[in-house]
């Protein structure tokens, strides 16, 4: 049952890593808070179907970079291009673009006054202008994909942290995004609940969902990521396949960070 | 004792004045509805403005709110009712009462709503905006429902204050509940009509006051 | 330009200001005295009632709750009229000042009782238990452990409520207490100018605005701590 709906999604989404055009491209991204430079000349490409993990010490700017990708954080300079559209262009409707960019938050940020189904269906009704029935059907499908179809009527406070985060993922993928941004999706979870969330992400990866994931889960990054980006002090220090980053990093800072984490 | 009963609980007099007081109650309720609806709406707009990041919007709003919270409503009413005519602005008692109470009450409602808005974690807004919902949609469907629920006791207690406030309309000789009760008192030299008015206010407001306490208790737990 | 000049002539006439500011200042003194008396008596009474309610005596609590409910539900002007015009009929005569003071003190007592009670209840039960376990008597726990925390939590609501109620001293004008509004209104009818009303309003702003700002500050500090 779950498998079926998974494959139906893969047909709809952009599969095939052969596509040369990146879904997300950051060019010379820069962010300053007052006097402090948080991000400096960030260049990054995420291609269709890729799962890119961003690791690095806290305060390295990785969450800020992620939040610049849908302009929850306003970049101070540089370009953010999603699916061929420049997000910084004044003619670009950011609300329309955000339908293509799902986001999953560290603190889940579920709406406490809506059920799991309501959380997922709200944007479908208001943004996609679906009818109530159509929105609920789509929302239920998304909940099924994260294995929570049976909890559709539950309110956030009736769900465990791991379940709440999976509702958060369902909310992000229900809109049929081109890419999903994950901001430390398991950091607020009790250790025994982390697995279920990572499992859902792994399945999304299998069906070709493009994902950019800021995470502290080194084992996950190592096992599942197509590419790992190491950030420190607002710069991308090094990026490459997980084997490179975790086993034979080129940069000394990467080595120090990775070793310390093991 | 008889004297006390006759002065405050003269049932005959109460019975006689009841129809007149009921007419006054109608006026009182009418003012209440207008002030609660318009004041609530105005307060909501002020709250959004005073929470705005735009300084030219925020600071005038805060000055407005603090000014009208510092001036007693009766002072406002008398200013509007007997001061404005000097500047050639003649308002009917009804319009004067509504205007004065709106100025006063929108400021109070604004503070209640502002507390409600501030009780919403920023993550709620970010989550909503990240799904492509507009600022207005986010406000309407995500922020306001939660904000209102968080400040329900204060909204309710402010509404009680509005009903009590309307008793000041009598000063502008508007035919509200207290005005008619006081007229009957001054003609009969007996306080029973005002005691009757007090009882009517109690019947109207006691359930609301109880509800405020109950909500507050639930929230502090 | 002419409009502005005309406006200031009506609402801020220098000659009128000069003539009537002593009267307004006198009113300010009366308002100030009343406000201070009401705040001290009202809040102390409210605190006392809230503490009595902690004793958990059922019949006493019912009385306290009824008191708080009634005085929160009645419009003060109604009570003022009953006291001022009704009580002499049964041989009790209070001065207008006393009527205003009594009414508003009772109202403030009712409100502050509820505020303090909410604060006391919001103090973690563990505080009572920890203190009792160390052998303190209930009254000692209340005074030294619970009340200080409850008071701190109650400060913002208490400040705002105290302002709202002491502002009602303006109701004294209806029964002839020579406070700010009374002075301003009578000056207005003597002088035939709206200027005294402006002066009155400004006197209130000068008196209450600092407290409004204080209340706002206390509130934001509480929010800041909660987050």
What keyword list fits this structure?
heterotrimer, B: 221 residues, mainly alpha, 10 helices, globular, C: 227 residues, MetI-like fold
Walk me through this protein's architecture.
The complex is a heterotrimer of chains A (262), B (221) and C (227). Chain A has ten helices and ten strands. Chain A has helices at 2-12, 62-68, 94-98, 116-126, 132-145, 161-174, 191-206, 218-224, 242-247, 252-261, and strands at residues 24-33, 36-46, 51-55, 77-82, 85-86, 101-104, 179-183, 210-214, 227-232, 235-240. In chain A, helix 4 packs across helix 5 and helix 6 (161-174) packs parallel to helix 7. Chain B is 81% helix and 0% strand. Chain B has one domain: Orthogonal Bundle (MetI-like fold), CATH 1.10.3720. By secondary structure, chain B is mainly α. The longest helix of chain B is centred in the first third of the chain and has 40 residues, at 11-50. Chain B is globular. The mean pLDDT of chain B is 91. Chain C has one domain (3-226): MetI-like (MetI-like fold). Chains B and C meet through helix 1, helix 3, helix 4, helix 8 and helix 9 of B and helix 1, helix 3, helix 4, helix 5 and helix 9 of C.
- Detail the poorly predicted runs of chain B: none
SS-derived structural category of chain A = alpha/beta
Strand-residue proportion of chain A = 15-25%
Structural class of chain B: mainly alpha
Number of helices of chain A: 10
The total beta strand count of chain B reads 0
Strand order of the largest sheet of chain A: 6-7-8-3-9-10
Helix content of chain A: 25-40%
How would a textbook summarize the main sheet of chain A? 6 strands, mixed
Q: Output the radius of gyration of chain A.
A: 18 Å
CATH hierarchy, class of chain B: Mainly Alpha
For the largest interface in this structure, which chains are involved and how many residues does each contribute?
A: B-C, 56 and 57 residues
Mean pLDDT figure of chain B? 91
Strand content of chain B: under 5%
InterPro entries (chain B): AA_ABC_transptr_permease_3TM, ArtM/GltK/GlnP/TcyL/YhdX-like, MetI-like, MetI-like_sf
Subcellular location (chain B): Cell inner membrane; Cell membrane
GO cellular component, one term (chain B): ATP-binding cassette (ABC) transporter complex
Protein name (chain B): Amino acid ABC transporter permease
């Amino acid at each position: 049952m779950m498998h079926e709906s998974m494959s139906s999604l893969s047909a709809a989404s952009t599969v095939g890593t052969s596509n040369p055009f990146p879904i997300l491209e950051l060019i010379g991204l820069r962010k300053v808070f007052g006097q402090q430079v948080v991000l400096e000349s960030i260049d990054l490409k995420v291609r269709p179907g890729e799962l890119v993990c961003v690791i690095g010490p806290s305060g390295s700017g990785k969450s800020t970079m992620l939040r610049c990708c849908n302009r929850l954080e306003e970049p101070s300079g540089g370009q953010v291009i999603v699916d061929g559209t420049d997000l910084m262009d004044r003619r670009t409707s950011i609300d329309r673009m955000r339908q293509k960019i799902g986001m999953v938050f560290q603190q889940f940020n579920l709406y406490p006054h809506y059920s799991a189904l309501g959380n997922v269906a709200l944007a479908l009704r208001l943004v996609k202008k679906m009818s109530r029935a159509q929105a609920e059907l789509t929302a239920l499908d998304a909940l099924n994909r994260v294995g929570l179809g049976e909890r559709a009527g539950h309110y956030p406070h009736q769900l465990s942290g791991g379940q709440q985060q999976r509702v958060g993922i369902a909310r992000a993928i229900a809109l049929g995004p081109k890419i999903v941004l994950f901001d430390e999706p398991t950091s607020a979870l009790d250790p025994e609940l982390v697995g279920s969330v990572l499992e859902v992400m792994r399945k999304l990866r299998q069906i070709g969902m493009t994902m950019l994931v800021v995470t502290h889960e080194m084992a996950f990054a190592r096992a599942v990521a197509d590419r790992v980006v190491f950030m420190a002090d607002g710069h991308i220090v090094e990026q490459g396949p997980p084997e490179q980053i975790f086993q034979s990093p080129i940069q000394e800072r990467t080595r120090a960070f990775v070793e310390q984490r093991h | 004792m008889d004297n006390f009963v006759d002065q405050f609980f003269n049932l005959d007099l109460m019975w006689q004045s009841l129809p007149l007081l009921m007419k006054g109650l109608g006026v009182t309720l009418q003012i209440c509805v207008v002030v609660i609806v318009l004041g609530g709406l105005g307060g909501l707009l002020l709250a959004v403005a005073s929470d705005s990041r735009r300084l030219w919007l925020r600071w005038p709003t805060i000055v407005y709110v603090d000014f009208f919270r510092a001036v007693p409503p009766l002072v406002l009413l008398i200013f509007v009712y007997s001061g404005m005519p000097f500047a050639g602005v003649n308002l009917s008692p009804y319009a004067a009462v509504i205007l004065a109470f709106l100025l006063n009450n929108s400021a109070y409602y604004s503070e209640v709503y502002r507390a409600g808005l501030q009780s919403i974690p920023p993550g709620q807004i970010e989550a909503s905006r990240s799904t492509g919902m507009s600022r207005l949609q986010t406000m309407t469907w995500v922020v306001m429902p939660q904000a209102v629920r968080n400040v329900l006791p204060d909204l309710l207690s402010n509404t009680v204050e509005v009903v009590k406030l309307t008793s000041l309309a009598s000063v502008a000789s508007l035919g509200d509940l207290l005005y008619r009760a006081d007229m009957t008192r001054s003609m009969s030299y007996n306080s029973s009509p005002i005691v009757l008015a007090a009882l009517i206010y109690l019947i109207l407001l006691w359930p609301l006051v109880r509800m405020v306490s109950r909500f507050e208790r639930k929230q502090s737990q | 330009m002419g409009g502005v000049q005309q406006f200031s002539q009506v609402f801020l006439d220098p000659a009128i200001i000069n003539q009537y500011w002593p009267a307004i200042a006198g009113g300010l003194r009366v308002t100030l005295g009343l406000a201070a008396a009401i705040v001290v008596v009202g809040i102390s009474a409210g605190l006392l009632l809230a503490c009595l309610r902690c004793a958990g005596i059922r019949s006493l609590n019912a009385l306290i709750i009824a008191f708080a409910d009634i005085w929160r539900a009645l419009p003060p002007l109604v009570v003022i009229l009953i006291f001022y015009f009704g009580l002499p009929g049964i041989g009790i005569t209070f001065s207008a000042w006393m009527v205003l003071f009594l009414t508003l003190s009772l109202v403030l007592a009712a409100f502050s009782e509820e505020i303090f009670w909410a604060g006391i209840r919001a103090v973690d039960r563990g505080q009572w238990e920890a203190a009792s376990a160390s052998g303190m008597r209930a009254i000692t726990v209340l005074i030294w452990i619970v009340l200080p925390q409850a008071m701190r939590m109650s400060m913002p609501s208490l400040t705002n409520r105290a302002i709202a109620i002491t502002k009602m001293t303006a109701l004294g004008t209806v029964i002839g207490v020579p406070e700010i509004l009374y002075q301003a209104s009578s000056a207005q009818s003597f002088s035939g100018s709206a200027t005294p009303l402006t002066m009155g309003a400004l006197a209130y702003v000068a008196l209450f605005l600092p407290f409004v700002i204080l209340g706002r500050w206390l509130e934001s500090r509480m929010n800041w701590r909660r987050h």
